Amino acid sequence: MQKILLFGDPGIDDSLAIIYGLLHPNIDIVGIVTSYGNVSQEQTEQNAAYLLSLAGREDIPLISGAKYPLSGESVTFYPEIHGPEGLGPIRPPDNIVPNIVNFDEVFTIIERYENELIIVDVGRSSSLAIAFILGGDIMNKVKAFYLMGGAFLVPGNVTAKAEANFHGDPIATNLVVERGRNVTIIPLNVTNEAIATPEVINYISRMSDNPFAPLIEPIFDYYFEAYKKNVPGIQGAPLHDVVTLSAIVNPTMLEYTSRRVTIELFGKTKGESIADFRPTPDLEPFPTLDRIGMQLNYQLFMQDFVNIMTR
Ligand code: BDR
Ligand code: CA
């Protein structure tokens, strides 16, 4: 079973990723770090706690992450896409008591699963960057990092060229892609293709009798309505964060290329992800190459998603 420490901002697609991870027989989520992003950090924490309580997995530690980016700038939330509380029309009950542990638990988990653990970040990179800043060499004990973010040679989703996660804290993302060992980036190039249609979601809802079943359709419908307003003619909604987790346990699902990645920090180009895609790119003396997902095998992704969500 692949041990995964998940950083995210649930959020609808983050929540679907958490559900997918909790149901997957080859994934062992060993901790969740919740940060600001789709909604506030307090709310993402509450949403993650709700999902864990539905699964009866309150044993999984919840770690409070960043409330704003490293730059200290104020943050914009996305209730129009993810709902006022981040779960579309669903409001997590007030009586959930999250199993919150100190941020140091990140390092305890990394040491416990030395060279085995994969860190997946499907939100702004702020909390993960803080782990690098505080943890130093401990971070070399992580086997690999998977980040959802960026848009390479395709349009962005917050500005013409920038994607939301990398735009949210580009200082943090640069730090992570430079210092992280074995970084894989899962950008909009592939996640925009990972479209779930209302028919598929309806099928999953009808076929599932897991504790998450009543949630799936209402949260997806809210998310899909938002996408319909922004992308005329779209037939479903993209499961950005699910693809990122799914890529780990389905290694042939994506085609990758390795490039040096940097993120633009300021001004109109803030958050744009830059890589040199020429066949022989210019390399600096000691470049850090990151693996970038370029092409998705949709059939494989969707079959696996349906299989797991109907368990
Ligand atoms: C990413 O931004 C967030 O809104 C989603 O949860 C996803 O992680 C897509 O750009
Ligand atoms: Ca997310």
From TrEMBL:
It comes from the Bacteria. It holds the Pfam family IU_nuc_hydro. CDD domains: nuc_hydro. Residues 5-280 form the Inosine/uridine-preferring nucleoside hydrolase domain. Keywords: Glycosidase, Hydrolase. One of its GO terms (molecular function) is hydrolase activity. The keyword Hydrolase applies. InterPro entries: Inosine/uridine_hydrolase_dom, IUNH, Ribo_hydro-like. This is Nucleoside hydrolase. The lineage of its organism: Bacteria, Bacillati, Bacillota, Bacilli, Bacillales.
